[in-house]
Design a protein that fits this description.
Elements: H1 4-33, H2 40-55, H3 68-84, E1 97-101, E2 109-112, E3 116-120, H4 121-126, H5 130-145, H6 148-167, H7 173-182, H8 192-206, H9 216-230, H10 238-243, H11 248-259, H12 273-280
Parallel strand pairs: 1-3
Antiparallel strand pairs: 2-3
Helix pairs in contact: 1-6, 2-7, 3-5, 5-8, 5-9, 8-11
Length: 284
Amino acid sequence: MKTLTGILHRNKSFIAFTFFVSALITSSLISSCGSNIFSVQDDVEIGSELNQQILSEPQNFPMLKGNQEVKDYVSGLGRYVLENSKAIIYKNIFPYKFEIIDDDSTVNAFCIPGGYIYVYTGLIKYLDNEAALTGVIGHEIAHAERRHMTQRLTSYYGVSVILGLVLGNNPNQLAEIAANLFVGLGFLANSRADEEDADNYSIKYLTGTQYYPGAITFFFDKIREEQKKNGTTPSDLESWLSTHPLPQDRINNVVSKLKKIKPKPDPTKGLYTERYQQMKSKLP
């Protein structure tokens, strides 16, 4: 005679097995279609955890001290993009913070989930006009809006995270993920597909604003010129290229997208070079 305990045990085993099989199938689908098992609120929580870690490591991420006018300027560019693009859907959900890292030797910017964006002084000094910096900031906003990092986390953690979340046996999973992310910030390296996607949305965000929508191309052109002149990648650009790959087809994609904009944008207008140079002169 079958006992109730035995029936429950078998049912429990069957349920666990069903979850496991479902997780395997889900993981396979996730890997193939770029899905995201994390919720939008998870992005906010992971971003908050990472931001706290970053701010607590001044030896690795020395935040710019003082210079409030420069901070407000950079933050204002980000706010302008958020307020003037209808394509941004999480502007009232993600906290969106813009920080400046005081490191002239690094030409880079990065974004973590939830819209925490960090711009190095090396990048600010490297660029020549306001539109170019706004284009880069728009690119980083796109990484947040398109939720690229948690998509990569989904692909990386796969079944283990799915089972942990579904079965509820690891309530501290998000904190652990944030801690793992922070070790070397290894998940800052974007895929070529993510970079192209962020470029497309940067153009979309700036189209119809006061800025030339393809201003990020000025940055690309400058990188290519330096690589050609030096015969290699200058050391201060290595960080950027390690997290933002720049193959020729990425550049071609941006050029192609700009050609489709009607009326055709004028690359000599909407740059605001003079006021950008005035702002740069205030950096230490």
